[in-house]
Each structure stands twice: as structure tokens, then as C-alpha cells.
Design brief:
The complex is a heterodimer. By secondary structure, chain A is an alpha+beta fold. Chain A is built from 12 helices and 8 strands. Chain B has 11 helices and 9 strands. Classes of the chains: A alpha+beta, B alpha+beta. At the A-B interface, α9, α10 and α12 of A face α7, α8, α9 and α11 of B.
């Protein structure tokens, strides 16, 4: 056993650092640090995606035939860790990490040829149409319906929590094409052009003051049948495959560590009256740091298993659950560390383009919004309660 | 980067798990608990035959040259069966201190005997007033023309009653070198002026308090050349905490398995307890925490020979986190067993008590979060 990286892996690490140093602009870095929502806005995120694509690194998880860099799991770990450490933009994952793998796994040759290059280059910007107002955790109860009409489907219904729908030109969605014996049957996976007539978007502001998610309405929206991925009625299988990617990317600890580092720096600064001098705050910082150590170690254990072709199984649910909980712990700590400054609200967005002097130091601007928005981490991608159900069933057999 | 077990490590795990499953049943544990010795000399002999006592000892001293990861594999299996043999005292702490501090002659004299099972050790370091501060020692060693004289009181000495020799820490007063140095002495259990008061230890095995009144020792009982032993003590205690962490992971796994089985067969309101989501989620949390503890024990083992601050932070991180997880898993195991969990009729309580003992040994969760924090700030200042 060995925790350290070998010479090749260290060389790769230097290569990644070199790439980041060359391509990450101060503007991107500042904008990322001052974004209190999950993903960077497209102007920032897609600039980074284009740089990655130029390097051949646009889709680390994809097979080499479709433009993936054929990295080992350890290389992916190093790449993600270095990106987190450097504070690169948080590229919307809906294209590369979510719909991409589904198209690769189940799409037609035409779909692969058309969509995959556009995901890599950032030409297309994707959003995800899964949840509905009546279908959250019980996702397969979804009611948005696609009725066949010649070579088209006509879609009616509504999707909610649609991240960046207001920026996206495409959506992948689960829609009901028939009523099966089980509610999971009769669901199809479909790709929708967001400019199609009949689509309207209602913005939803989250409690941190950010516009990241939306509700999307479909009124007689015509979508070609050719835009269906895989078989009609098998969408649930494809959708679940995608959720595995959403939960189990499994490389989250580096980002958490970076978040804690920022909070610790504030705690060590005179701006907070050196909050860290309180033994309680100091111990809590250690407690969160140790939780991150444990998560990182579990990620590395999973990675080691993957390297030798073993299946890590339900551990991806543990990773999702702990990542979300620890992220909330980091942001909670942040609020306690900044003290008085937690009272002030800065309503304007984006925070990196304010047209006035903020009432608090810039480094503190995201602290409260991140804490508030961050409550969503234990809700999206399968709530913590759903994850515990999965762990009980898959790991414990109950 | 590779965290998969090697073939040798896998074999070690299999043989240790098999041994514990076959030899360590409830009756065995009960007998050991009632035995004034607290463990079975026959089992100790088997440990020697299996090579486990030689595991971390360098090959040049008849050992197998294993490291903290191998020790962790063994300790996790020990935890599953609540093994009470004095392995920590003799092999993990004792052999490590002699290897680190002893002269060639002292290593030559002791290490092969540890490996073959003919020498049992204990480490007497903690003192009441020091609490968990390893640097605080008031026991004194005065050098005279007739050798050393040791006086002082030690508490919470693991398995001291069974040791042939006890490694005692004391402040050196020899009018040489800088003051404030801590030295380690190899004190024969039969030494005049040494009084051992032993007691059954929470969760199995035994411990003792030791009084030293002008215990006279020959010069060569001081390990090494009299340089300050504190760094070596910290190093040895850090790897011991990693080993104890692995043992605790084994204990947690047994508790989780037992509790899981129980909730599947125990019926209330006409259905198994495990049919209730509140119970399933509790068990999921227990499984998560057991897994986090496993990660932390392995991490501490893998960093046990890293530079001091990094090693110590990993050890404290493991001790704090595993302690927290262990309390949760232990307390919930009792809770989910209902009234029976609070009785001596089930073994859940025995396993739980060992977890509580773990959390106390070398300082609990709060102490180690605080040590972790202090060490972090030292690094920044440096």
C-alpha cells in the first residue's frame, strides 16, 4: 500500500499545474471565488471548458474514441484535485458529466456524431429535465407527457429545479411516453432544443439570493422522435445510469478542503478578530478537516478498487452523502467565523461585478449565500434520506 | 497511489480472521475476563507460532519487518473477537520503544525474545497530573554511583501485571546534558520498590497503577544514551493510536453485523425492526461511520512514519474521528438491541465497553481535535 503518487503520476500533476497556471486567468479565478451557487455562469464556465477542450481534456471520463484523454482513475483524481486547489471555474456538469455518458452509452451513431463534439467544445449548453413539482424523490412518478404524432412527440407538462435552464440551449429530459404496469415503465429519455416554441422558463430565486434554478413549462412542444435516446419506455434505466454519475464522481474532497482553507484564512485574519483564537472554533475547524480527511481516504480507497477493476458498489452513496454533509458543515462554520458580517445581505449578482462598494470585505461576500444555498446539497441528486435508503438496501441488505 | 491489499496482506487478514473466528468465542472471552491474568498464555504462544509477535520487529532481530499497515490488519481482526492478549503493550508499544531508543545490545537482548513470545512488556508513562500530555512526567530518575534510583507514580499501564519488564519513563537527573530530558528505563517486574496494583480493564484485559519508591537500577537499564525520549514516545504512541483505531474498526464491524442481524429477526408490531425506515437509516449511519473509521485508521497507519507533525496530525485525526464514530456505533448498537443491550447476557455491552476504553486511552475525541488544531497552527507558524 502506498498513499503517495508515483513518478509518472507526479509528472502528470506537474503537467496539470502547468496547464492551469497558463489558462486560469485572474478574472476566472475571482469570478469563481465570488460565485455562491453550484456552477459558474456560462461566460466563466465555458471559457474554461474551451481551454480544457483545446488541451484534449474536455471530458476526462469519456472513452478515448469520443475524445476522452484515457486517464487512469489516479490521473482523474489528480486532475480534479489540482483544479479544486487552484479554484478553476465550476463548469456546469450537465453536458460532459451527465448527458454525455448517456449518449455515449445508449445514443444512436447520429446522436453521438452530432451532440458529443458540441458538448466537448462548449457549443451546446445543457440543462436537466428530471424533477417535477409533484415528483421529487419519487422521480419515476413524473407526469410530463410526450405523445407521438407522426415523426414528432408533442410534450406537455413542467420540470422544476432546472439548473441554468435560462442559459441552456438544450435539455435532456425524462418524459412519460406510455403508462406501464410499474411507474418506472413508459418513461423515455429525450433531447430537447430549448428554442422550440411552447417552452417558457420561470426563474426561481434560492434563499441565498441567486438565480441558478428554474421551472420550465412545456405547452405542445414538438420534438422529433429522432431526439429520443435509446428505446421508447426505457428512459428510467438510462436516467438511473446518469444519476450514478451525478452521485458518484467520487472526487469531492479537494473542493471541500479548498472551501475550508478559505474559511480558515478568514478565521486567522484580523477581519474576523482572529476567530481561530477561540478554542471552540479551532476545534471545529479541525473536526471538519478530519471529516474531509476521512472522505478523501474513502475516495482513494474507491479509486484503488477502480484501478484494479473492482466495483466499489454502494460506496458512491456514502460519498455523495458525506460530501453534502461536510460541505454544509464548512459553510456553517463560515457563518460562525465571520461573526457580525453575517448580518449583511448583498442582493446584487454577480458578486464579481458589483457596481458599488460592498459593506463587508470581498472575501466574506459568499459566506452567507453559500451557507443558505448549500442547504440544497443534501436535497438534490437524491436526498440524504434517499441515500440512506440506498445504503441500507445495497450495503446492508435491509 | 495504491490502497489495495498485497497478497501477503490478504493472507495475513484471512489467517487472523480465521483464528479469531475459531478460537475467540463468547466462552473464551468470559473465561479471559474472569482470569486473574486477563488473557490466555496458550493463545499468546499461538500468536508467537503464527509469527504475529514478530510482525513489526526488524528482520535482523528475528522479526518479520512488517509495518503499521500489517499491524492494523491484525488489530482489526483482534477487534472483531475482542482479543485481550497484551499485544499492544508488548508488541506495538514495547517493541517500538526498544527499537527506537535501545542500543544495539538492548535491541539484541529484547527484540528476539518479544518475537518468540518469551518476553512481555508494558509501558508505564501516564501520570495522574499529566492527564493526556505526553510531555508531562514527574517521575524522577536520579543517577548515583550505584546506578539509577527511580521514584514516582504511574497510572493506566496496560497489562503491567503480566509484563516481565516494564518500560518506565522518568525525568533524568544526572548532571549531564540538558535538563528536562525524559529517559526510558527497562525495569524488571521483580525490582525492589516497585508496587503494581492491577485491576480489570473496561472492555477486557487488565491495567495497573504503579508506585516506584527508590527503585534501584543498573546503568544499562536506561534505553539508549540518555537523549530525550519524548520524540520517540510521541512516535510510538501515535502508531499505537493507529493500531488501536484499527482494533476499534473491527469492534465496530462486529457490533454493526450483530445489530443488523438482530433487527432482521426481532419482531415488534408484527414486523422485523429493520422494516422501519428509522431503523434502516440508523443502521446506514452506523455503516457509514464504521467505514469512515476504517479510512482514518488506515490513513494513520500509512502516515505513521511520515515527518512528525504530519504523522501526529494523522494520528490525532484518527483518534478523534474513530472515537466519535465508535461512540455512535456502540451507543446505537445498544439502543437497537433494546433492554437486552443493557444486560450482561448479550456481548454487545462487552464490545461497547472496549470502545469506551479506546476513547479514553491516550486521550479522547475532544483532546485529539484540540491537539490536531494546535499542531496545525504550529505548522503555519513554522
Amino acid at each position: 500500500m502506498d498513499l503517495s503518487f508515483n513518478a509518472e503520476e507526479r509528472a502528470f500533476q506537474s503537467e496539470v499545474r502547468g496547464f492551469i497556471a497558463k489558462n486560469l486567468t485572474d478574472e476566472m479565478k475571482r469570478a469563481t471565488a465570488l460565485t455562491p451557487s453550484v456552477f459558474s455562469d456560462p461566460d466563466i464556465g465555458m471559457a474554461w471548458q474551451r481551454a480544457l477542450h483545446k488541451q484534449g481534456w474536455g471530458a476526462p471520463g469519456w472513452p478515448v474514441d469520443h475524445g476522452g484523454p484515457s486517464w487512469t482513475p489516479a490521473q482523474r483524481w489528480i486532475f480534479e484535485s489540482e483544479c479544486a486547489r487552484a479554484g478553476v471555474p465550476n463548469v456546469n456538469v450537465m453536458g460532459v458529466k451527465m448527458v454525455g455518458p448517456v449518449i455515449i452509452g445508449f445514443g444512436s451513431p447520429e446522436q453521438k456524431n452530432f451532440y458529443l463534439p458540441r458538448i466537448l467544445s462548449g457549443e451546446d449548453y445543457w440543462c436537466q429535465g428530471y424533477s417535477e413539482p409533484g415528483s421529487g424523490s419519487d422521480l419515476s412518478s413524473l407526469k410530463t407527457r410526450a405523445v407521438r404524432d407522426g415523426d414528432d412527440y408533442i410534450i406537455n407538462g413542467t420540470k422544476i429545479w432546472t439548473t441554468h435552464a435560462h442559459h441552456a440551449n438544450r435539455m435532456f429530459a425524462l418524459v412519460r411516453t406510455s403508462d406501464g404496469a410499474r411507474q418506472q415503465d413508459g418513461i423515455s429519455f429525450i433531447l430537447i432544443d430549448m428554442k422550440t416554441p411552447g417552452i417558457t422558463i420561470r426563474p426561481i430565486l434560492t434563499i441565498g439570493g441567486d438565480h441558478e434554478v428554474n421551472q420550465v413549462f412545456f405547452d405542445d412542444v414538438r420534438v422529433p422522435v429522432a431526439n429520443r435516446v435509446g428505446d421508447e419506455g426505457k428512459g428510467w434505466t438510462y436516467g438511473k445510469y446518469l444519476l450514478e454519475f451525478e452521485r458518484g464522481a467520487g472526487i469531492a474532497s479537494a473542493k471541500l478542503r479548498e472551501g475550508l482553507r478559505a474559511i480558515t484564512e478568514l478565521a486567522e485574519s484580523d477581519l474576523t478578530g482572529r476567530a481561530i483564537d477561540s478554542p471552540d472554533i479551532a476545534s471545529r475547524i479541525s473536526e471538519v478537516e478530519v471529516d474531509i480527511d476521512a472522505l478523501e481516504m474513502t475516495e482513494l480507497r474507491v479509486l484503488s478498487a477502480l484501478q484494479t477493476g473492482q466495483n466499489p458498489g454502494a460506496v458512491s452513496s456514502i460519498l455523495k452523502l458525506r460530501n453534502s454533509e461536510i460541505r454544509q458543515a464548512v459553510t456553517r462554520l463560515g457563518v460562525d467565523v465571520i461573526g457580525h458580517d453575517a448580518l449583511a445581505v448583498e442582493p446584487m449578482r454577480p458578486l464579481y461585478k458589483l457596481n458599488h462598494e460592498p459593506t463587508m470585505p470581498e472575501d466574506m461576500l459568499t459566506v452567507v449565500p453559500e451557507y443558505l444555498n448549500g442547504r440544497a446539497y443534501t436535497i438534490f441528486g437524491g436526498t440524504s434520506e434517499i441515500q440512506r435508503d440506498i445504503i441500507a438496501k445495497m450495503m446492508l441488505g435491509i | 497511489m495504491d490502497l489495495n491489499l498485497s497478497d501477503e496482506q490478504r493472507l495475513l487478514r484471512e489467517s487472523a480472521e480465521r483464528f479469531v473466528a475459531e478460537s475467540y468465542d463468547a466462552d473464551h472471552r468470559r473465561n479471559a475476563a474472569n482470569d486473574p491474568l486477563g488473557f490466555s498464555p496458550a493463545v499468546w504462544k499461538q500468536f508467537a507460532e503464527l509469527g504475529w509477535l514478530a510482525l513489526p520487529i526488524p528482520e535482523e532481530f528475528d522479526g518479520l519487518g512488517g509495518g503499521p499497515v500489517e499491524i492494523g490488519i491484525l488489530m482489526e481482526a483482534f477487534g472483531r473477537g475482542l482479543v485481550s492478549e497484551p499485544y499492544i503493550a508488548t508488541v506495538v508499544l514495547g517493541a517500538a520503544l526498544i527499537e527506537k531508543c535501545g542500543s544495539i545490545a538492548q535491541r539484541q537482548a529484547s527484540l528476539p525474545k518479544i518475537a518468540d513470545g518469551s518476553l512481555k512488556l508494558a509501558f508505564a508513562h501516564s501520570e495522574r497530573a499529566a492527564r493526556f500530555d505526553l510531555a508531562k512526567v514527574t517521575t524522577s530518575a536520579n543517577k548515583t554511583a550505584h546506578g539509577w534510583y527511580l521514584s514516582g507514580s504511574k497510572i493506566a499501564v496496560l497489562d503491567g501485571h503480566a509484563a516481565d519488564e516494564i518500560i518506565v519513563s522518568a525525568h533524568l537527573h544526572d548532571h549531564q546534558g540538558p535538563s528536562g530530558r525524559i529517559g526510558l528505563f527497562l525495569v524488571p517486574a521483580t525490582a525492589q520498590g516497585l508496587v503494581i496494583s492491577d485491576y480489570p480493564r473496561l472492555g477486557g484485559g487488565r491495567a495497573c497503577n504503579i508506585e516506584l519508591s527508590d527503585v534501584q537500577l543498573p546503568e544499562d537499564t536506561l534505553l539508549g544514551d540518555g537523549k530525550d525520549a519524548l520524540p520517540a514516545i510521541e512516535w510510538a504512541v501515535d502508531r499505537t493510536m493507529a493500531a488501536l483505531g484499527a482494533e476499534t474498526v473491527g469492534i465496530m464491524q462486529t457490533l454493526l453485523d450483530t445489530t443488523l442481524d438482530y433487527t432482521k429477526i426481532r419482531k415488534q408490531f408484527g414486523r422485523p425492526l429493520s422494516a422501519n425506515q428509522v431503523i434502516r437509516h440508523r443502521l446506514a449511519d452506523m455503516a457509514i461511520q464504521a467505514d469512515e473509521a476504517r479510512s482514518m485508521a488506515l490513513r494513520a497507519a500509512l502516515k505513521a512514519d511520515n515527518p512528525p507533525v504530519e504523522r501526529a496530525r494523522a494520528a490525532s485525526a484518527a483518534k478523534a474521528k474513530i472515537g466519535k464514530c465508535a461512540r455512535f456505533v456502540g451507543e446505537q448498537s445498544i439502543q437497537l438491541h433494546g433492554g437486552m443491550g443493557v444486560t450482561e447476557e448479550l456481548e454487545v455491552g462487552a464490545y461497547f465497553k472496549r470502545l469506551v476504553a479506546f476513547d479514553t486511552l491516550f486521550g479522547g475525541t475532544a483532546h485529539h481535535y484540540s491537539r490536531h488544531a494546535q499542531l496545525g497552527r504550529t505548522t503555519k507558524a513554522a
